Amino acid sequence: MKKDKKDKWDIDNFLVVNWPQKTKEQIDKEVQKNVDELFSNPEFIELLKRLEKM
User: Fold this and answer.
1) CA 29 to CA 39: how far, in whole Å?
2) Does pTM top 0.70 for this prediction?
């Protein structure tokens, strides 16, 4: 099956064309922000405690 390069749903083209141009520092900052948000969420902490008991 030949891929049509004009197919907007072609995942390979999507990843290449729309790949975010971010520095390692930007990615690290976003990851840290997400971690901080998770650990400030009481529901997430409760879930972790329940998983730990398993």
Assistant:
1) 15
2) no
